Amino acid sequence: MRIAVPNKGRLHEPTLSLLERAGLHVENGSDRKLYADTVDPDVQVLFARAADIPAYVADGAAAVGVTGRDQVHEHEHGADLEELLDLEFGKCRLVLASPEDGPIRETADLAGGTVATEFPNITRTFFEGTDVSPDIVEVSGATELTPHVDMADAIVDITSTGTTLRMNRLAIVDEVLQSSVRLYAHPDRVDDEKVRQVETALASVLAAEGKRYLMMNVPSDSLADVEDVIPGMGGPTVMDVDSRASETPGEDGDGAEEDAVAVHVVVEEREVFETITRLKEAGARDILVTEIERLVE
After folding, report:
1. What is the predicted pLDDT for the residue at 24?
2. Given the DSSP bridges, would you call strands 114-117 and 135-138 parallel, antiparallel or unpaired?
3. Could you tell me how far CA 101 lies from the centroid of its own chain?
4. How many whole angstroms separate alpha carbon 208 and alpha carbon 200?
5. Contact predicate 172/82, CB 8 Å
6. How far apart are CA 228 and CA 101, in angstroms?
7. Spatial distance between the Cα atoms of 43 and 197, rounded to a whole number of angstroms
8. In this predicted model, what pLDDT tens digit does every residue of 198-231 receive, in sequence order?
9. All domains of the chain, ordered by start, with CATH?
10. What's the confidence (pLDDT) of residue 259?
11. How would you write 165-223 as a 3-class SS string?
12. Which of 108, 142, 199, 256 could be 250's S-S partner, Cβ–Cβ 3.0 to 4.6 Å?
């Protein structure tokens, strides 16, 4: 089973990193190779341009592919692919923009005008949902330049922060499409066992992001108070502990057994600081915080 992934650019390393964290180590992967094996003998990685990955998946050369939503919507067969996961990186927007000091202030102002873009199919689809039908000019680069040399009245281009648009004295008129990197599958391969395994592995990495695993010892008579502090994902896991590990000194210095339990829970990383303070106040002790590599829900 082949997974098509970007062979270079800003999506290459994050994609390989995600596969690594999901347990699919890529053997000797580099942007100079066409194929690479993984630790799973049934899974192979195919390196391709992000813009070509929809074609590889649509044609069946790869069962699944990792690429931007914008690339899939631009491809002529993109609508035939099945989106399995939003991988939550490579976030950007396709926007309609025009010169800051120009006459275009809203989409309707482009009636009879011209729009330059590297994404003619997305742009055409966008304007089909409006009452405006401008001429669409496809360019292969330097899109921001076209309004300033009288090639176009506006552009449709990718932006992440808007900095490049501002540097070229362009203002956003409308949003055309929101994009991020996604996992797509050929419709005939969606239910393949190996495809589902890959989807589950990647989803487990995404589910673990921003979460921490807390372990602690809690006196049994304080358990209710601790549970009020950390309801957790479906409630905390409570287990008996070895009584020898929960001995507390008596007045005569001898160890006296204390009835205690071990409590494990998953919490949001942003809540860890406050939660630990409240746990100690509720009676928890020996609190351990660890990172979570994967979380299969």
Report:
1. 93
2. parallel
3. 36
4. 12
5. no
6. 58
7. 11
8. 999 999 999 999 999 999 999 999 999 998 888 6
9. 2-89+180-208 (3.40.190.10), 92-179 (3.40.190.10), 211-291 (3.30.70.120)
10. 85
11. HHHCCEEEEEEEEEECEEEEECCCCCCCHHHHHHHHHHHHHHHHCCEEEEEEEEEHHHH
12. 256
Assess contact for 66 and 15: CB atoms under 8 A: yes
Nearest Cα neighbor of 87 from 202, 1, 249 is 202
* Tokens encoding 133: 């039908």
* DSSP 8-state assignment for residue 50: T
Cβ contacts of 95 within 8 Å, gap of 6 or more:
156, 157, 159, 165, 172, 173, 174, 175, 176
- In the beta sheet, which residues pair with residue 156? 96, 117
Mean pLDDT split into 10-residue runs, the chain, 297 residues: 93 95 83 84 95 95 97 90 96 96 94 96 95 95 93 95 92 96 97 96 95 93 90 75 55 57 92 93 94 90
- The DSSP output letter for 131 is S
Radius of gyration of the chain (CA): 27
| CB crowding 134-163: b at 16 or more within 10 Å, else e | bebbebeeebbebbeeeebbbbbbbbeeee
Residue 14, token pair as written in the block: 């994050």
pTM for the complete prediction? Answer: 0.84
The answer to whether residues 69 and 182 touch, using CB atoms and an 8 Å cutoff, is yes
Task: Compute the residue count for the chain.
Answer: 297
Two tokens, residue 97: 């923009």
In angstroms, rounded to a whole number, what is the distance separating the alpha carbons of residues 19 and 33?
A: 17
Q: Quick one: pLDDT at residue 234?
A: 65
Tokens of 49: 């341009």
Indicate left, alpha or beta for 184 from its phi (over 0: left) and psi (-120 to 50: alpha): beta
- With CA atoms as reference, report the closest residue to 94 among 177, 174, 203: 177
The alpha carbon of residue 180 and the mean position of all alpha carbons in its chain are separated, in whole angstroms, by 7
**pLDDT for residue 251:** 47
Residue 256: predicted pLDDT? 45
